[in-house]
Design goal:
Largest sheet: 5 strands, parallel
Order of helices and strands: HEHEHEHEHEHEEEEHEHHEEEEE
Strand order of the largest sheet: 2-1-3-4-5
Distance between the termini: 37 Å
Number of helices: 9
Structural class: alpha/beta
Shape: globular
Radius of gyration: 18 Å
Strand content: 15-25%
Oligomer: single chain
Length: 252
Amino acid sequence: MPEPQSLYNLKENIVHHATRQPHILIVEDDDEIRLLLEQYLSQKGYVTSAATDMEGIELIFARDPVDLILLDLMLPKEDGRTLCRYIKEKTNLPLLIISALSEVSDRITGLNLGADDYIAKPFDPSELEARIRAVFRRNQNTGLPQEYRFGTWRFLPRKSILYSQKGVRITLTGAETKLLQEFCLNPEILMSRAMLVEALKGDADELEPRAIDLIISRLRRKLSEEGGQLELIRTVRGEGYIFQPQTQRSEG
């Protein structure tokens, strides 16, 4: 799939203006569900747009800045999983999957694709809105340090990016960024799953501990060089995780 210029620009130059309402892009082919979501979220103070395929997504990207995407996996023209993977590779946008696929394996697949959260249909609109607010909280980078350095890596939390010593650039999801930020703030300290859940969302009841394991698994895959796994995040069986680099913080 070719890389559209609109997505490239979005990846590099997302600007969030505090004075404007958050813009949510709804990617949903069911007209009734899409209309209900637009009406409900508009009442909650969000600006909404809708699309049913990649072409529609690109048109909206080119027209307006987007702050979050709601993505249905069961789309008639596009494979939702491929679309999810592509969006997360080309942008830093938070993405929340909404899907009729409700098995645990489906949720795990969605999180492994890079989604920030997953909610199964049918759902209560108030729960969806609560999850949207939680995703925005996790992706709020205001006040983060400019840079951390550990091992051979440079971590830029404000941009959700990792750079290796060889110049390899790795884009992180909002949840991965927040979790790695928490580890950098607490090196050599045992962090339980409950502590990491609370750090991610501010409410330990909003995210299952199992999701932490999935996010850490994704981080470990990204924190690798030439196929060799870096032992930066150590598992303490039955207790949690310890981040063990020589971490340096750079202000700016």
